Amino acid sequence: MTLKDKILEFVELAKQCPEKLQETCFRVLLENHLSGQKSDLPEKKKDAVGASPTKKLEEATQQQGDIKPSDIHVKVKRFMEKNTVSLEDLNLVFYKEGESFLPLYDSLGTTKTSESQIRVALLRALRSALTNGEFEATLEDVKSECQQRKCFDGNNWRNNFVNNKRLFDFGKFAKDIKAVKLSDEGKEELAEVVKQLK
Question: Can you tell me whether residue 50 is helix, strand or coil?
């Protein structure tokens, strides 16, 4: 059986898992198959590699799950109370994997490039705040995600932030700025975006 055939088989198997686990399932199946192809590993490594795909999948999925109140930084709890964002709202937009908070949404809920850029910045700031309490996003992360989502407009990148300066606390938007921090209005806008994406 060729590698292409195996990959197609793994895709079909992964589709049988819940949607948010499909990618992990596929990755585990493929990694297990590829690692099984390496016959010149020392015995100790062969034993580790030979673990069943089911066991690997179970271990990977045990690290994934809903966000619990104990996972949320106190500053995010205050934000949620102030802007009537429920834990259920949060769990419909993000999930926890290990120590990371990852998005469940595929779409940003808009087709406008400029609006998409701002939403990426807002949602990135929330992911940061869940971890460390700071509602800020690095421009490098925002730019990278915008490029992945095909909503990066290099000609208007800076202008989009300047035009939405009420949402951010960065004073004058200088060329050397590395991150944007949400203002109170930005947090209110973020709450609306979370409610729209759920």
Answer: coil
Q: Exposed, middle or buried: residue 98 (CB in 10 Å: 0-12, 13-18, 19+)?
A: exposed
What CA–CA distance (Å, rounded) separates 116 from 108? 6
For the chain, residues with pLDDT lower than 50 are: 39-41, 44-47
Kindly report the pTM of this predicted structure.
0.69
69-197, what's its fold? Arc Repressor Mutant, subunit A (1.10.10)
* Contact (Cβ atoms closer than 8 angstroms) between residue 71 and residue 98: no
Instruction: Give domain limits for the chain.
Output: 3-62, 69-197
Give the sheet arrangement for strand 94-97, strand by strand.
Answer: 64-65, 94-97, 100-103
Measured CA distances, 87 to 66, 69, 83 (Å) = 9, 8, 12
Shortest CA distance to 130 belongs to which of 66, 61, 59? 66
The CA distance from 31 to 144, in Å, is 26
pLDDT at 44: 47
Q: What is the DSSP string of 160-173?
A: HHHHTGGGB--SS-
Assign residue 4 a region: left if phi > 0, alpha if psi is -120 to 50, beta otherwise? alpha
